Amino acid sequence: MMKILVCISNVPDTTTKITFTDNNTQFNTNGVQFILNPWDEIALARAIELTDGGNGTVTVINVGEANTDATIRKALAIGATDAVRINAKPHDAWFVAYQIAQYVKANPFDLILTGKESIDYNGSKVAGMLGELLDLPSVSIIKKLDAADTEATVEREIEGGKEVLTIPFPFVAGCAEGVAEPKIPNMRGIMSARTKPLTVVEAVEVQNNSEIVSFETPAPRGQVNLVAADDPAKLVELLHTHARVI
Amino acid sequence: MSVLIYAENAAGKFKKSTFEALSYAKAIADQNSTNLIAISIGDVANDELAVLGKYGAEKVLNVANDKLKNFVNQAYASVIAEAAKANGADIVVISNSFSGRGLAPRLGVKLDAGVADGAVALPEQNGGKFTVKKTAFSGKAFAIVELTSQNKIIALAPNAYKVVESGTTAPVEDFNIETKASDFTAMIKDIVRATDKVSLPDAEIVVSAGRGLKGPENWDMIEELADLLGAATACSKPVSDSGWRPHSEHVGQTGIAVSPNLYIAIGISGAIQHLAGVSSSKVIVVINKDAEAPFFKVADYGIVGDAFEVLPKLIAAVKEYKASA
């Protein structure tokens, strides 16, 4: 029986146009649809596959306020066994990792999965911080995960290739594409998600070490310089003499 | 205080991203009128180590321990943290590489340090405030993050800071610490690294293609153009989802974000999720037969035309340019 914990984030939908308010200090959530972080979906899908056929349990954990419950229910509908929400605004990766680590110290798991990063702050820090806080091995970005009795074989992405590792349970891993295909909840899943346990836990105090001061958006580009389709040589010339990138 | 830079190597050689991180760390050391110490872990020859001096390292700590020949996340984090403590370094700079992204969070916890990952500019230090600009929302924005802790970890995004030569050679010292067995429970079984290919996150030029190419059998043209330009190949999400190309080539919000000098997009319409992953490219070229494709709105140069007609001509033009250069 394998006990798996999947850490999930509530993030703006990938189609969101990102804008800011309050003098560019706050993300403008007005009209924004929030979703389960796409890479967390991959982690969740693999956790469900590994425990398929009553071979274990999958707990999802989120650090967030009550407005993340819809995303947590979605994870339950996809197939998680139960859920925990640590009731606090997720200040930064350190805060989130610290809260989850406290929970795991009291409730141990065989395997802890996260997405490789969240699509909002792109930190890819929670997996490594959890590993350090819990004194467990961590692998930051994996694209394959196979489990045996006492250890797993994972493939880690490296520049221009991959690394294959074996790691004894328990450990922490951040999942990227390739680990599993995301699962779409079926009607039975959606119905049962309403009654699956969602435990709300209060956060513990921890000293912050980072603050977001403000946001910027990328500088807009000028008008596109169009080159005739039958004259790509002109493009090559422009890239050499004008843009100076080749 | 001092600044410590972890000089990452790949198979015993330092990469451009390491020299970028060194140049960046040197500038931070200069900002604070302090010295820069580099640490290298693994099997790197002495003359390669001395090269680190060229980019500003005043001293190179060499950790040549058989057990640390290959990257072991936990053990490497322990060694770097010990080196930071032993040298009074309160700022540690690393590359925001695949391995760096595993190290930064563990170092943050070990050193009670705030972590700025994916940094794209030098920190600003005003009135006791230390802020770093980093990518956010998968390339759709930047966040200015203040690190409020005494110790700080900064992971520099690739292609975000120019390599600057500022010194000559640096003295190399052996640095050895006791390793603990519990740091080595993860075992490397195999490393597969394509040596003839440019790695996508580090590439200065990226040639990327989408569904407009109609099928994986047509990627020869993309590979040929990439080879000519010394570029990495990439693709859009539908292409990797269809299995035409590996996931590691998927650029976009749910793939990887790149910031090359030149991004050439062929047969990619430019969905907002794809644009997020390429927005920090310096120059964007779009080739698409649909003049209304959203990608043209964020492109610097464009050709409205069928990829199957434009590409052979473009390849010929690049060959001609290379022959004359």
TrEMBL record, chain B:
Residue sites binding FAD per the record: R211, G267, I268, S269, G270, A271, I272, Q273, H274, N288
GO molecular function: electron transfer activity; flavin adenine dinucleotide binding
One of the Pfam families matching this protein, by short name: ETF
The protein's required cofactors: FAD
Highest taxon above the source species: Bacteria
Limits of the Electron transfer flavoprotein alpha/beta-subunit N-terminal domain: 3-192
InterPro entries: DHS-like_NAD/FAD-binding_dom (IPR029035), ETF_a/b_N (IPR014730), ETF_a/FixB (IPR001308), ETF_asu_C (IPR014731), Rossmann-like_a/b/a_fold (IPR014729)
Free-text comment on the cofactor: Binds 1 FAD per dimer.
UniProt feature coiled coil, ranges: none
Keywords recorded for this protein, A-Z: Electron transport, FAD, Flavoprotein, Transport
Gene Ontology biological-process annotations: fatty acid beta-oxidation using acyl-CoA dehydrogenase
Family assignment from sequence similarity: Belongs to the ETF alpha-subunit/FixB family.
Protein's name in the database: Electron transfer flavoprotein subunit alpha/FixB family protein
Organism: Mucilaginibacter glaciei
